[in-house]
Amino acid sequence: MHQVAPDRSWPLFDVAATRRIEQAAQAALPPFTLMQRAGLATARLALAIAPHARRIWIACGPGNNGGDGLEAATHLAAWGKEAVVTLAGDPAALPADAKRAWERLRQAGLDLAPAPPHDCDLCIDALLGIGAARPLQGGLAAAAQAMAGVGRPVLAIDVPSGLHADTGAGLAVRATHTLALLTLKPGLFTAGGRDAAGQVWFDDLEVPAGPEAPCALLAGPPLAQPRLHASHKGSYGDVAVIGGAPGMAGAALLAASAALHAGAGRVYLAPLDPAAARLAPGLPELMLRDWSSLPLPSLAVACGCGGGTAVADVLPQVLPQAASLVLDADALNAVAAQADLQALLRARSQRSLPTVLTPHPLEAARLLGTSTPAVQADRLAAAQALAARYACVVVLKGSGTVIAAPGQPPAINPTGSARLATGGTGDVLAGWIAALLAHGLPAFEAGQAAVFRHGQLADRWPAGEPLVAGALAARAGG
Ligand SMILES: NC(=O)C1=CN([C@@H]2O[C@H](COP(=O)(O)OP(=O)(O)OC[C@H]3O[C@@H](n4cnc5c(N)ncnc54)[C@H](OP(=O)(O)O)[C@@H]3O)[C@@H](O)[C@H]2O)[C@@H](O)CC1
Ligand SMILES: Nc1ncnc2c1ncn2[C@@H]1O[C@H](COP(=O)(O)OP(=O)(O)O)[C@@H](O)[C@H]1O
Ligand SMILES: [K+]
Questions:
Q1: Domain named YjeF C-terminal: which ranges (predicted)?
Q2: Burial 325-348 (b: 16+ CB within 10 A, else e)
Q3: Which long-range contacts (CB under 8 A, 24 or more apart) does 89-92 make?
């Protein structure tokens, strides 16, 4: 069993692949072996989470997830715990493996409780796993509600019940811990998955993934980029930030500050507000330029940050010329609205010019011509659809940021938290990615590395210190 931490990358498998892995293992092993392993692993983790627990409520559902719970309950009772077992369903209708777990429970002298306990020290959520097919209803919904009311740690088996294992969508049990079995599923790490799953643990039940290819990766830490002694500012590339229309100069400044602190050799700031040139940015290292005078073919450009509608006039020049490009915020909205800009964007890939789009879910919805809920319902699919449509790398921001590129499995970022949900942190990310592009990282690696470090910086932010974008930018790359 492993604790899933952002110290390495992890392959993720969707439900279809997990079912194939399970079927191959079932065929090769004596019947009931996997459920025995699953139940034992769950019981062991329950003890580790709540070593002094006396009463443990195991809330079982009508399928094999419930069977894992029944098997765990038998172990916990054998180890001296008071196991209170409820079943939202008919024991006679359980699938074969779960029925066997039910028989073992009965043989151990245990029976079902008529209702959840009024109090317990730990809840085990064995209502639904990868078979969750529709929103929780009836007895399952009642059990989930009771679990929330107990106010004790909740250990979810495989998937927090109700959560869609592939997407992280769906109203689900909110667990403090989730023990993923056989495979790690992408839905645990994006959309509602992080909040539902809590700390994720993984047990492969001694079954290798075999020939199955992961549908996505949980990203690990990027490689360090040591700065050679015999290097100079030209070795690290030049960034230009174009944005900051009237009233929004701060966004462009944040991106430029992040690019500077993330290690770009030189950073140009090209505000779209003519008056902004008179502002003292407090960063004398920045070189203020009119955008039309920038040497675009030699620059990594971050375009859009606070760009307002003015950025649409810049894009016909920037899209074909920038050596590498990050499009954020208003630049994305302009692309979403103009077919000519979309064509210029797509044409960049034919010339192998690296491009990264950094939409939040609303911007992604505009680019895809759909709604924000539709994007959030399947963030991996939305990011992949965008990458395919615009032939570039896409960083779909939010809880469990997705990094996608055409023709390869997407990555889900494991770092960051809602402390980043404050104005301007997305501008910081755009500037940070541009700095890595300027250094020569390929677009996917640049996006993945900057997103990981940006989130990690937030995770390590001192608890009592407000996290604001300006301070985040000043520590980029640190
Ligand atoms: N086989 C093995 O040995 C192993 C299995 N493993 C474990 O099994 C889990 C998968 O088991 P599973 O396929 O039985 O699916 P599961 O999640 O229990 O639910 C299916 C049941 O729920 C029902 N149902 C669904 N949604 C519902 C709703 N909203 N409201 C009400 N009912 C609803 C659905 O009914 P139906 O849709 O058919 O009407 C069906 O009866 C997996 O996550 C892992 O924990 C692992 O230990 C590895 C070894
Ligand atoms: N709940 C969250 N968990 C992880 N990251 C988050 C969360 N909320 C926001 N972020 C991150 O904060 C940044 C916000 O970017 P964005 O929405 O563009 O805001 P802004 O335009 O104000 O800069 C993104 O990198 C996003 O992934
Ligand atoms: K569950």
A1: 216-478
A2: bbbbbbbbbbbbeeeebbebbeeb
A3: 89/60, 89/61, 89/62, 89/139, 90/62
Q: 202 and 277 in one domain?
A: no
**Pair 10, 202: CB distance under 8 Å:** yes
Distance (angstroms) between ligand 1 centre and the Cα of 130 equals 6
Q: What is the pTM of this model?
A: 0.97
Identify the residue whose C-alpha is closest to ligand 1 atom 44: 65
Report CA torsion sign: 318, 320, 323, 329: positive
Q: How many structural domains does the chain have? A: 2
Dump the DSSP string for 246-283: TT-HHHHHHHHHHHHHTT-SEEEEEESSGGGGGS--S-
Residues 6+ positions from 151 with CB-CB distance below 8 Å: none
Binding-site residues for AMP: 397-401, 426
* Token pair of 425 as six digits: 């942190």
Q: Ligand 2 centre from 465 Cα, in Å?
A: 18
Q: What's the pLDDT score for residue 226?
A: 82
Provide the b/e sequence for 69-99 (b: ≥16 CB within 10 Å): bbbbbbbbbeeebebbbbbbbebeebeebbb
What is the tens place of the pLDDT at every residue in 157-195? 999 999 999 999 999 999 999 999 999 999 999 999 999
Q: What is the ipTM of this complex?
A: 0.94
CATH of the domain at 107: 3.40.50.10260
